[in-house]
Amino acid sequence: MKHDNDNHHIYAKDLGGNMGLNSETTGQSKDKVTAEASSRLMSLDALRGFDMFWIIGGGMIIFALHNIAQNPITAFLQVQLEHVEWEGFRFEDIIMPLFLFISGTTMPFSFNKHLASGQPKRHLYLRLARRIIILWILGLMIQGNLLRYDLSQLHLYSNTLQAIATGYLFASVIMLQFNIRWQFIITGSLLLLFWGLMAWVPIPGYGAGVLTEEGNLAIYIDHLVLGRFDDGLNYTWVLSSMTFTTTVMLGVMAGHLLRSEKTDKTKTLILFATGIGLLVTGMVWGIWFPVIKRIWTSSFVLFSGGWCYLLLGVFYLVIDVWGFKKWAFGFVVIGMNAIAVYVSVHLFNFGFITDIFLNGMKDQLGGYYGLIHEILTFAIVWLILHWMYRKKTFIKV
């Protein structure tokens, strides 16, 4: 990781090149228009920060609030912030796909910037390899038990950062080697291929087309490939890398749109229309191939992708088109150091800092102690991020 001290939003500097990596038109006037348009995309930082907010404290604040209020509204919010056990979808189930989606949305900006500078593709591949290795190691540290220093407890593939690394790797190859039309075709083909494998390939003791927690092709392959390094849970990773890639590629498509010379109104309409279309398609496909996050089914990719497009559409419209930006500053502060704070809150218990100042007031605060504790813990994390933001210290992988 490195410190980035340029005065910018991360996406404002990742510019250059034409809309598609393999497009034949590279006129300077088009690049200038694209660069000017993308420099306004504060919405991407804000949306990433919104996503991270629920990971670094937002969810715990809602849980603590429900413990006090115990009313239907807080009960509903608490349920939405808990994962579905198997089939179905709640708000909590959008957080991981949104993280992958946004990583894909930034790729057309950053990749075209590097290629427009005249660097050969092999240099970009080296940067990609470095990033993927770092993400993988960080994932091992967070959920892979790497820091236990006990090989028997190590889980090789078990974390969101590793899913991002895998999806980013394959999406990068697709972007660098194929034009936009083929990027669409390959993305759709991967979704169909994953469905075909899950539906038709039999597994010992269960047969073909089984989608239970105990028996399905994806979890069978995980046990087979990862062996004793498997996390032993009903989340799947190895075969699901195909659909992790498609979630990233949905973000790539959004990035191509945002880099294009279309008007703001047209971009917004396309984002909303695509979101609705993906939601409907995902629900319909889910009749035969259920929406299951833990397997990352093709229908889940489309359904969650629909919500990602709608959220991006709302943030883009409000922040970049209408110009209402002040309200989003708190999210931008988080979004500018998203991976750094994601790793930090998993490795360090910032609640210990809150305990120093708050434990002596536990009796006085009574039932409100938990809520105030969660709010102050989040505030400590946010203030650290705000200090980094003011110092223009943006830690990137």
Characterise the protein shown here.
By secondary structure, the chain is mainly alpha-helical. The protein has one domain (2-54, 99-349). Helix content is 65%, strand content 2%. It is built from 18 helices and two strands. A two-stranded antiparallel ribbon has the order 1-2.
**What is the oligomeric state here?**
single chain
CA-based gyration radius? 21 Å
Strand fraction: under 5%
Question: What characteristic shape results from the CA principal axes?
Answer: globular
Please tell me the overall pLDDT: 89
Quickly give the structural class.
mainly alpha
* First-to-last CA distance: 5 Å
Number of strands: 2
The DSSP helix count reads 18
Helix content: 55-70%
Strand order of the biggest β-sheet: 1-2
User: Could you list the spans in which at least 5 consecutive residues all have pLDDT below 50?
Assistant: 1-39
| Order of H and E elements | EHHHHHHHHHHHHHHHHHHE
What is the count of distinct domains? 1
Largest sheet: 2 strands, antiparallel
What tags apply to this protein structure?
single chain; 397 residues; mainly alpha; 18 helices; globular; disordered N terminus
In short:
The chain has 397 residues and is mainly α. The chain is 65% helix and 2% strand.
